[in-house]
Design brief:
This is Large ribosomal subunit protein bL20. The chain has about 120 residues and is mostly helical. It has one domain (about 10-115): Orthogonal Bundle (c-terminal domain of poly(a) binding protein), CATH 1.10.1900. About 75% of the residues lie in helices and about 0% in strands. It is built from five helices and no strands. It has helices at about 5-20, 30-70, 75-85, 90-100, 105-115. α2 packs across α4 and α4 packs across α5 (about 105-115).
């Protein structure tokens, strides 16, 4: 079998790895092995935090809805239960945006549910 010199490919791989870790601190931005490990960990954290972000936003929406309901004198849990009983199919994201940006529409929904 003929000999294959892989200098070009090895350099390309190394260069791409080090480009991904540009801005990292200490050996992680300069040493190939540490850079590979840093890339692996960064990917793991990115995956986990994409999942966490969904929960973070849901908690934020709950707080916004709860704050708008405090003005009306109702608790969050009772409001959500009343929404379910009345078959109002508006999700928390929409409710939170209405409570924040258009309180008059939110109060209409509150009155419809609270009848």
């Amino acid at each position: 079998m003929t000999r294959v010199k892989k200098g070009v490919n090895a350099l390309k791989t190394r260069r791409n790895t080090l480009r991904k870790v540009k801005g990292y601190r200490f050996g992680r931005s300069k040493k190939e092995k540490q850079a590979q490990e840093a890339i692996f960990h960064a990917g793991t954290y990115a995956f986990a935090h994409r999942r966490d972000k969904k929960g973070d936003f849901r908690r934020l929406w709950n707080v916004k809805i709860s704050a708008a309901l405090a003005k009306e004198g109702m608790s969050y849990s009772k409001f959500m239960g009343a929404l379910k009983k009345k078959n109002v199919l508006i999700d928390r994201k929409i409710l939170a945006s209405l409570a924040e940006d258009q309180p008059e529409y939110f109060s209409r929904i509150y009155k419809k549910v609270n009848q």
